[in-house]
Design brief:
Length: 291
């Protein structure tokens, strides 16, 4: 079981989700969809992919045979902390390698997929570089906030995040046998920047943009309605995190959450345990129960 908080302070804290790289067999179609629905500007990359940017959000779409996330990047506020974090991994026998990214300054590094994550997924850590000019444009409130993966083995994945990287466990969801079915970890005071749900196979689950409040969710829903993009789940309120939410899906089936009013927790706040039931995942009604 992951410990909370880790025995020694980690240089990870505080860090926030900085950007996300998705993989798609049709990157242009997905990029067009994300640009319209998430109010982002996009430009093609030499390899046939795209970079999308909007206020507080950067998403890379890379060509590939699969779908889902290829890497997840976290931003720290100094090169010294990045170096300390890399040394922490090395001291625990976790291999790292340099990460070359136009969105992170020199000295960034990557850690390959831990146990329980979909094959090929990497975590990147570095100091954010100057954001693309498109990120300064207008648009609805919604900074990139958290990612969620599905896995048959959530315990090893969460143990890696907590014990090796230094994330802090916020909440566990357990079935009647006390087996972990979902876990939420934080890297700053917001309730979670990463979560994992038990499912039959490893896969990307969703990513979320954090809006500023209930009225922003209304505005996002009206925006989706204008585009004739149906809401797939919500609006509702999660138990863990206590955040308001609604979700849509992109052409590849990736879920996109618009979240608001995420709970904040001190670094030393103990984690809680929730029962596996619909109400845990949606205090207001029906839930998406992963299988």
């Amino acid at each position: 079981m992951p410990s909370s908080p880790p025995p020694l302070p980690s240089p990870l804290w505080p860090a926030s989700l900085h950007h996300l790289a998705l993989e798609s067999a049709d990157p242009e179609r997905v990029s067009d969809f994300l640009a319209a629905t998430l109010q982002m500007r996009w430009e093609r990359t030499p390899g046939g992919g795209a970079v999308l940017a909007g206020p507080g959000r950067i998403i890379v779409v890379e060509p590939g045979s699969g779908t889902g996330a290829r890497h997840v990047a976290y931003g720290l506020d100094s090169s010294g902390r990045v170096a300390e974090l890399e040394a922490r991994f090395a001291g625990r026998g976790v291999p790292t390698e340099p990460a070359e990214s136009p969105f992170l300054e020199a000295g960034a590094f990557r850690v390959l997929a831990p146990d329980g994550a979909p094959d090929g997924i990497a975590l990147l850590f570095g100091v954010p570089a100057e954001p693309p000019s498109a990120a300064d444009g207008g648009g609805l409130s919604g900074r990139l906030q958290h990612v969620v993966f599905r896995t048959p083995a959530p315990e090893p994945l969460l143990s890696f995040l907590v014990d090796e990287a230094g994330f802090v466990l916020s909440d566990r969801v357990e079935n009647d046998d006390r087996a972990l079915t979902a876990g939420f970890v934080r890297s700053d005071p917001e309730h979670h920047s990463f979560a994992a749900f038990r499912a039959s196979r490893p896969a990307f689950d969703h990513f979320a943009l954090e809006a500023e409040g209930w009225n922003d969710l209304r505005d996002w829903a009206d925006h989706f309605a204008e585009l004739r993009v149906p809401i797939w789940w919500g609006p509702g309120r999660h138990g863990p995190g206590n955040n308001l939410f609604l979700m849509i899906r992109d052409p590849d089936g990736n879920r996109i959450e618009i979240s608001a009013e995420m709970e904040h927790m001190d670094r030393d706040a103990p984690h809680r345990v929730w029962p596996l039931e619909e109400r845990t995942l949606n205090l207001w009604g029906t839930a998406w129960m992963r299988t």
